[in-house]
Design a protein that fits this description.
alpha+beta, Immunoglobulin-like, 2 domains, 5-stranded mixed sheet, 10 helices, 15 strands, about 40% helix, about 20% strand
Length: about 350
């Protein structure tokens, strides 16, 4: 069989290149275009609506450019030649009115979508035409982005897992997210959009999954050497399947307490799924407040000290950390004026008689 000629290779080069590019992104594209969660489905619809709306102006412009190039080509002697033409009111109205209407529609879709799909907003429906039944209890899942793995805490069930997220079908889920060291992004494309997880901060995401299946999630923000392997499995099960998973985890071994968390916090790559039968409910708040290590003052206590909260001062002193010095604030009339007496001077300097005796 003769070898293919250069002309055949040139004709096949472009289709093969496009097939390779689409093949590399087919998994993500199919998940985004056919998600299993109602929030992700609404976001998919918003993307399609915006794309079609923009094509209403893009496609006619491309077609008009091709038609003008063909009609007014140099060899077409029938085309009208008018070098002095400079204005047309009808053409100006057409050129500006169509993009203006599209921008208005896009702005309205953006405004409504950003409010209806606010990740902090609790869900009011499970799917189109299916409101959340009264009495439905939202499942809370606490998420910690580690280097380079995902930690999921189930405070109500008292269990935890690493790189494995199991959710019940048709039940609202509230995610509380934070990070251990650097900013990261939690992204489960079949569930909802991206949401940032940041150290010393807590973000929220409300979502629901409507179809049982095995899915996946990932980190969508570069966070270091192990970023490319920072993925997790997402399993959507019915209520019985979710209860069975919780029972199996509880029957296992291991406890996620502060000491175990400090071991997990160390950077590691390609970590397999791990499960913990018991959970210290105070771990997540300690991670957010950067006080997992013993003897470390929580950020919430530090902020209370900044507000001159006596309870925080006593707590900090009892914990071994230096207590905050309390003093009465200056009044508006005293600001910028010289001290009236010795007591006023001590107040402005922040020194008490006991402090002055130690100097």
């Amino acid at each position: 069989m003769p070898a293919p000629g250069p002309s055949l290779l040139r004709r096949l080069a472009l289709p093969l290149a496009l097939a390779a590019l689409l093949g590399g992104c087919s998994g993500l594209e199919l998940t985004v275009l056919d998600p299993a969660g109602d929030v992700a489905r609404q976001q998919r619809n918003l993307i399609i609506f915006s794309t079609v709306l923009m094509l209403l102006i893009v496609v006619p412009v491309i077609v008009a450019a091709l038609i003008f190039a063909w009609r007014y080509r140099a060899s077409n002697e029938k085309a009208k030649y008018d070098p002095d033409w400079d204005h047309s009111t009808q053409l100006e109205l057409l050129i500006w009115s169509a993009p203006l209407l599209i921008v208005i529609c896009l702005g309205a879709a953006t405004w409504t979508g950003s409010h209806l799909l606010d990740p902090y907003r609790p869900l009011n429906r499970l799917a189109h035409g299916r409101p959340v039944p009264q009495g439905t209890k939202t499942l809370e899942v606490q998420v910690v982005a580690l280097d380079w793995k995902w930690l999921f805490l189930y405070p109500e069930q008292g269990v935890a897992s690493v790189n494995e997220l199991v959710l019940p079908v048709d039940r609202p889920v509230r995610f509380r997210l934070t990070a251990s060291s650097v900013m990261n992004t939690f992204y489960a494309p079949t569930l909802a959009g991206m949401i940032y997880a940041m150290p010393s901060m807590e973000t929220k995401l409300h979502a629901v999954v409507n179809r049982p299946g095995d899915y996946w999630g990932m980190s969508a923000n570069y966070s270091g050497a192990g970023f490319s392997h920072m993925r997790f499995k997402l399993y959507a099960r019915d209520e019985r399947g979710f209860a069975d998973w919780v029972a199996r985890v509880r029957a296992g071994q291991g406890a996620l307490d502060r000491a175990t968390y400090l071991k997990l916090e160390k950077p590691s790559e390609k970590v397999p799924a791990m499960r913990f039968a018991r959970l210290d409910p105070a771990v997540f708040d300690a991670v957010v407040n950067q006080c997992v290590r013993p003897g470390t003052r929580c950020m919430s206590d530090t902020m209370k000290m900044d507000r001159h909260d006596p309870a925080a001062t006593r707590q900090g002193t009892e914990g071994g950390a230096p207590g905050a010095r309390r003093s009465q604030p200056l009044t508006g009339g005293d600001a910028g004026q010289p001290p009236k007496d010795l007591r006023d001077a001590q107040q402005r300097s922040g020194l008490t008689n006991q402090d002055k005796s130690t100097l």
